[in-house]
Every structure is written in C-alpha cells, then in structure tokens.
What we know:
Elements: E1 5-6, E2 14-20, E3 30-33, E4 55-60, E5 70-79, E6 88-90, E7 92-94, E8 105-113, E9 119-127, E10 138-143, E11 146-155, H1 169-172, H2 176-200, H3 239-243, H4 250-257, H5 262-269
Parallel strand pairs: 1-11, 2-7
Antiparallel strand pairs: 2-4, 3-4, 5-8, 6-8, 9-11, 10-11
Amino acid sequence: MAAPEINDPNCYPLTGVGWASSQSTCPKEYQLIVTTTDGSSANFAKGFGQKSNCYLCVSSLLNKQNPQGDIVSDIQLLPDKNPLPSGYAFISEFLDPKVTVSKKKRLCIKTVPFGGADTAVFDVKLTGKSKQIVPLYTCIGELSGFVIWCRKGRLAKPKPLPKPRSIALDMRGLSLENESSRKREELDVAPARLSKRRTTLEHKDSVYSAENIYGISAMDGVPFVLHPRFESTSVNVPSANIANFQIKSHAEIENEYNYSFMTEKTAAARLPPTVS
C-alpha cells in the first residue's frame, strides 16, 4: 500500500531524531516529547534507578518553501544484535554524562537530501503498552514500556516558480516586432533614396550595386544616345538628320500598324476535341 501524500501545511518532514536528558541538553532546533498521547510521562529512564531523565526529541524542516539539507525518510527499531541496514544510522544522543539508554533495542533512522526524497517521516508519538491505536500513524515497535509510532507519507513538494526570461540585446534585434519596424522604416526611406538616386546617378554607376537595391528602375544607368542609323556624316549639321524624320498623325499610325488579332481569336474560339 502506497504511503499517503501529506498536504497539511502545518506538517513538516523531520530532519532528525535523538535522545535528550532535558531541555537544557536538547539542541534548540529539537523539540522534546515529554508526554505520551494520553498525557503520561514519556521518560524512558524511569524505572532503571536513574535520577536523570531520557526523552525522545525530534527536529523538523522549518522552511518548506526553501528546503535545505537532509530529511528523515524512515525510522526503525532494531534489536541490538541485528546489523545496521545500509544507509541507516543510530539516532543522536544529547544526554547527561551519567545517563544511558537501553541497548537491547536501538532506534535508527535513514536521512536523504530533500530533493531526492519521495517519502518522509513527519511526526513521532508515544503510547503506553495498552492496545491504543494512533490513527494515520505506523507502529515502529516497543521500547522500555512505550510503543513508538511514526507518521510517514509522500512529500508534496512545492512547484518551482519559473524564472523571468531575460532577453539579450542581440536577441531583441531578432524579434518579429523589431523586424517589422525596420522594414517599415526602410519603406519610408525608399522614396527619398529613389529621388536622390535619379538625380545623382552617373553612367559609371552599377545598376546591380548592393547599396542601391531600393528604388532602381530598368532605365537607370542607360545612356540616352541616337541610333547610329540616324547619325549624320556631317557632325556639324545636326539639322540634316532631323529633316529626314516624317511626322505622322495618330490615324496614320493606327492604319499602318493596325492588327486585328483575328488568327488568335479564331484559335481561342475553337472547341476542344471530345472523347468518343
């Protein structure tokens, strides 16, 4: 049966379990378990003729949103003669010098980094030897007249927040918005380039120059000269060439070069052959 997921915001995974004689010997990040679930004393040293006390203590992960360090993923109660399982260690001891704990059974825990843990121990409770059941808790075993219970479950890890995207300046230049703006600016500048091109273009200018790709017409760079057939043998008498020109009216031009396109129209009117 899979462990349930712990979604209680006030329930944090344990980071350590230990023995402590009193509040003075207990580290500040640990909390003593001084009573059982029914309110009785949870002193494990009671009945052994010792004047000092011995309590279980636990520490919890304080900041669940920014977890750091290891957490307790499992806790076991082993007979002293059993070998320690791989990855487990005996719980810490914060005891007075003269206080000892029974070695017949020993508590051990397994700690793993928070990021690599799927399950964790969230709490430890104690009951007497009676058949009392602690809901949602798992029985670990009996030690020195107490029954040890722990609450285990799957970690509900917080979802990482996405980091804000930082776009470099060179990447911004590749954006579609900047590309469209650049093209609009080039289109606005094109008429001015065309006017300047037509007024300053010389015969030596190349029509295919890369710097003049905007606003170039097919006639740019073509010199205006007369055909050789109209050139006079006498260079000094230009009027002789002009006298050979015959000025025709619009009607004369239409009559001379009129073409009815009847052949093309007849061909276009033919029906395509049908398949019999």
